[in-house]
Amino acid sequence: MLLRTLSAALLSLPLVANAATFTTLVPEKSEIQFHYEQMGVNMDGFFKGIDGSLHFDTDAPEKAQVTLEVQMQSVDTGSEEADSEVVKKEWFNASDFPTATFKAQSITPKADNEYEVAGLLSIKGHEQTIRFPAKVETTDEQATFSGSFSLLRGDYAIGEGAWSKFDIVANDVRIDFTIIATP
């Protein structure tokens, strides 16, 4: 009877996930979306080409190393015409700057599975330090890093010449990301 009661009590305890280290980015499952306004209309798109390296230990998140590279030619706005336009010199200048890069400089735990991330974002040869909240959900097989941040396209010279004004295409751009990694 005591053994049965003890077994039942142990089975009712919540399971604690084992510590894990995630080192392999899974590009085909990862996603980077962008959201902006054009002539007062909400617009969306995403990048299909994501690569990089990471090392995230659930027991030592502050020691994490993350570098993400986004292939600018992989943009998908939902329109072939717009896709071919935004890779031109006035916008992403993808021929001279084929990748945008984010390199984490610090990852600070804030709450369970919640972090403040700071790092250097480089787009089109322009760099800015950005900070944003992120969440990390883990299983033994996978870590899902998600979050959102805003940037000003003017800070990165995205939209030059006639497009440098913000009356047609807004300056504010929101980036949402989901990055998948495995051990």
Automatic annotation (TrEMBL):
InterPro entries: Lipid/polyisoprenoid-bd_YceI, TTHA0802/YceI-like_sf
Keyword Signal carried by entry: yes
Residue ranges annotated for the Lipid/polyisoprenoid-binding YceI-like domain, each copy included: 22-182
Signal peptide region: 1-19
Keyword hit for Signal: yes
Name of the molecule in the record: Lipid/polyisoprenoid-binding YceI-like domain-containing protein
Any single Pfam family the record assigns to this protein: YceI
Record's keyword terms, sorted: Signal
